[in-house]
Design brief:
Layout (H helix, E strand, L loop, with lengths): L21 E3 L9 E6 L9 H14 L8 E5 L3 H13 L2 E7 L4 H9 L3 E5 L11 H11 L4 E2 L7 H17 L6 E4 L5 H13 L4 E7 L4 H7 L27 E7 L1 H15 L5 H16 L5 E6 L13 H6 L3 H6 L8
Parallel strand pairs: 2-10, 3-4, 3-6, 4-5, 7-8, 7-10, 8-9
Antiparallel strand pairs: 1-2
The structure holds 4'-deoxy-4'-aminopyridoxal-5'-phosphate (PMP).
4'-deoxy-4'-aminopyridoxal-5'-phosphate binds next to helix 6.
Length: about 350
């Protein structure tokens, strides 16, 4: 074990948000580069979204949009909901989450156990329909005086959390020397916040986008245009529109990663490095490995483990599920050997 001094006991779980550890990838071939992963799964709510939940709620408290005992509303199928629940629980706010009905049972059970009012709605309707989860959240917010509709896609406190915490932490942990940072885009907060921070603090650092095949962002980066979105199984990243919070001109290079490659790479990370990460981390690591192996000179590259793989144990870490999705051949027959150092 590396010797490291431990901080004193925290006053609440919210004080444990951020300051996440960084680990180097040493058992997978990274070409001429050194690749480091920031373990955002070690936030108390289990994901990178704890940071933005805290920042968005504290910004609203500060400017009076949220008062003690008030109600917070968001439309989310995932980690932002868990992050908001984490913060709302400790700070004593009520939380209503509007969730599309395709969401995993584990997540709904987790939220309900935290006292969240989970309203389940249809996932087969689009923007503009009253039962579309974002429209429904807005309607609920309008009916509750003083309620705060968080809206992570447009809320400036989302990218700001990464600009003021995640970015400085990365640069410090990398001793001021970072050539590239590989991120995904869901709301765009990570890309925009880190991109803005590094543009000022370390202009040589390039932002690299990892996008699931089917998302429109890869095409948008390369051509400035996009067509109809497809579908993908990776959770939390990829979009069918450009969120206000996603400043896409910060991206220097983009990779489109298939579901198969994301799943295989997340499993490889667990098998080789002992890190149980979620599906979007598989996408990010796959893009980071491609970027690293394409380099002709040594570079220092950082990516993120966005959330824990614990909530995907019945999905991508389950061989039956993997087989049912047609990923079986390569995972069973060990074609991954060419990826291993
Ligand atoms: N990975 C996971 C698992 C996520 O839940 C999210 C957020 N949707 C992201 C990555 C992307 O982060 P951002 O919203 O900052 O673009």
């Amino acid at each position: 074990m590396t010797d490291r001094s431990l901080p004193r006991a925290a006053r609440s779980s919210l004080d444990l948000i951020g300051n996440t550890p960084m680990v180097e990838v040493t058992r997978i071939d990274t070409g001429p580069c050194r690749l480091f992963l920031k373990l955002e799964n070690q936030n108390p709510g289990g994901s990178i979204k704890d940071r933005i939940a805290l920042s968005m709620i504290e910004a609203a408290e500060k400017d009076g949009r949220l008062t003690p005992g008030g109600t917070i509303i968001e439309a989310t199928a995932g980690n932002t909901g868990l992050g908001l629940a984490q913060v709302a629980t400790v700070k004593g706010f009520k939380l209503i989450l509007v969730v599309p009905d395709k969401m995993a049972r584990e997540k709904i059970l987790h939220l309900r156990a935290m006292g969240v009012d989970v309203r389940i709605t249809r996932s087969d309707v689009g923007k503009g329909h009253p039962e579309y989860y974002q429209d429904m959240a807005q309607t609920i917010a309008q009916g509750i005086p003083g309620a705060l509709y968080v809206n992570q896609f447009e809320n400036p406190a989302n990218p700001l959390a990464h600009q003021t915490t995640t970015g400085p932490e990365i640069l410090d942990q990398m001793e001021g020397d970072v050539d590239a940072v590989v991120v995904g885009v869901g709301s765009g907060g990570t890309l925009t916040g880190l991109g803005r921070f590094f543009r000022e603090a370390s202009p040589k650092t390039r932002m690299i986008l990892a996008d699931p095949v089917g998302s429109i962002l890869y095409d948008y980066v390369n051509t400035g245009q996009y067509g109809e979105a497809g579908s993908w199984i990776v959770e939390g990243i990829g979009e069918d529109f450009i969120p206000d919070n996603a400043q896409m001109d910060l991206v220097a290079k983009a990779y489109a990663i298939s579901d198969r490659e994301s799943v295989e790479t997340a499993r490889l990370l667990l098998e080789k490095e002992g890190i149980l990460a979620g599906s979007s981390s598989g996408t990010l690591l796959a893009a980071a490995l491609r970027y690293c192996r394409e380099q002709t000179e040594p570079k220092r590259v950082v990516s993120l483990v966005c959330d824990t793989g614990g909530k995907y144990l019945t999905k991508m870490f389950n061989d039956m599920w993997v087989a049912a999705h047609g990923f079986e051949e390569r995972t069973k027959h060990g074609d991954l050997r060419d990826l291993i150092a």
